[in-house]
Amino acid sequence: MQGWSITGESDSDQGRILRRVLFAIVAGGLAHTLVCWIAAQLDFFRGGGNAFAQLFTLIWSGHLLLIMITLLGFNRLFRDPSMTLPVLWWSTLVLLVSAWYVDEVRLCVMLLFFAILQMGIFRCRTRELVLLAVVCVGVYLGIILALHHWYPEALDITGELIQWATFLLMTLAVIILADEISAIRLKLSERNRQLGDIVDRIQNLAVRDELTGLYNRRYAMERLGKIREMADRGAFGVVAAYADLDHFKQINDQHGHALGDQVLRDFARLTGNLLSGRDFCARYGGEEFLLVLVKSDLAQAEALLEQLRDNLSQAHFPEAPGLRVTVSIGVTAYRPGEALDTWLARADDALYQAKGMGRDRVVRAEG
After folding, report:
1. 163 Cβ partners below 8 Å, 6+ apart?
2. Catalytic residue among 287, 288, 302, 306
3. In contact, 365 and 331? CB cutoff 8 Å
4. Strand partners, 241
5. How far is the C-alpha of 238 from the C-alpha of 278, rounded, in Å?
6. Distance in angstroms (rounded) separating the CA atoms of residues 57 and 302
7. DSSP per position, 334-358
8. Distance (Å, rounded) from C-alpha 95 to C-alpha 104?
9. Each residue of 291-332: pLDDT tens digit?
10. Would you list the DSSP string of 90-123?
């Protein structure tokens, strides 16, 4: 069965919620109705068949209302769309109301409360179940005392109190069990969260360079291949560029690898500040980077890369105040239908031209 929202759109989560509500209301409601009907047949239902019919007409009207709220999607207006607490409280209320009318087998009716608690053990906090249990036990005792006051001939007060004490102890045992289950559930939830964090980290490490946070070479080539396929269908133009930090080995030798790492991170940060969400930069190896600019032409790409080159040359490093870092960049546009290696080789040739011309510049290879 599939649930539907107020707008009529199907939703698998809503479908699961609807199935849970239907099971809880229909299965629980039928069990409750059957027990009370048997009591009525044994003449243990105060007021007889008429009172039974009137009471359960009202009870099933409430059941149907809860089902309709879920069926129409209005449950999504609740903090908890599964409506676990409303269903638990409503089921407990009708149980207590029927307990007022049932004589002799009142405990049989009240034992259905443990089925109600079971519905909430895995979805409610312990304190919510404790409050429900306290109210149920207290009202049950109140019903016994009120009946003893108004209809003393209708019940054996001693027997009823013994049954109530038994119900109290059983309820206490179920609540203790629910608390244990809740503690286990919280531990599992925390471990699942930690496992999710580990999985996310592993997935991130599989596609990201750990030092700079940029894509790694393997993932960059996979993504570039998909972009190339889309470009071949005429979806957009795309430009690739190789960037190589000038004299990076000297930076490591003269200032240490810690500063060299900071230079790499700063280059990644400056690049990220300039690229749009559809573009990307990858650490291709060492101090070499691959930049891919989607929906861009050579003129636009060259202007952006010139801005990147200028921003990097003006970057300051407190650990080395006199250090000026420059970058050489070769850029070219993709030609529809050409091989990926051919395209990137042209960008690589442009990079070597930039180095040969004195570095610290952007050189384009006409696409």
Report:
1. 106, 107
2. 287
3. yes
4. 291, 331
5. 11
6. 77
7. PPTT--HHHHHHHHHHHHHHHHHTT
8. 15
9. 999 988 999 999 999 999 999 999 999 889 889 999 999 999
10. HHHHHHHHHHHHB-S-HHHHHTTHHHHHHHHHTT
Band the pLDDT of 367: cuts 50, 70, 90: low
Instruction: Measure the CA–CA gap between 207 and 219, rounded to whole angstroms.
Output: 5
| Nearest residue to 213 (alpha-carbon basis) of 266, 251, 257 | 266
pLDDT tens digits, one per residue of 13-30: 888 888 888 888 999 999
Q: Which two tokens stand for residue 246?
A: 């000038």
- Per the listing, tokens 């991130």 go with 204
The pair of structure tokens assigned to 344 is: 């990137």
287 is known as an active-site residue: yes
Q: Which residue has the tokens 């396929």?
A: 229
The encoded tokens of residue 137 equal 């036990």
Q: In a 3-state reduction of DSSP, which class is residue 201?
A: helix
Contact in structure between 33 and 56 (CB atoms under 8 Å): yes
- Whether 10 has a pLDDT exceeding 50, the answer reads no
Strand-pairing partners, residue 294, are 238
pLDDT for residue 4 is more than 80? no
Sequence-separated (6 or more) residues with CB below 8 Å from residue 225: 340
Amino acid identity for residue 45 in this structure: F
The DSSP 8-state label assigned to residue 215 in this structure reads B
Q: What interhelical angle do 28-41 and 84-101 show, nearest 10? A: 0
The closest alpha carbon to 141, from 115, 119, 164, 123, belongs to 164
User: In b/e form, how buried is each residue of 102-128, taking b as 16+ CB within 10 angstroms?
Assistant: bbbbbbbbbbbbeebbebbbeebebeb
Number of other residues whose CB lies within 10 A of the CB of residue 139 = 18
Which residue in 199, 191, 102, 113 sits closest to 151, CA to CA?
A: 102
Backbone angles phi, psi at 274, to 5 degrees: -100, -30
Of 33, 25, 112, 115, which Cα lies nearest the Cα of 75? 25
CA distance 166 to 78: 36
Out of 7-16, 47-56, 168-177, 335-344, which region has the weakest mean confidence (pLDDT)?
A: 7-16
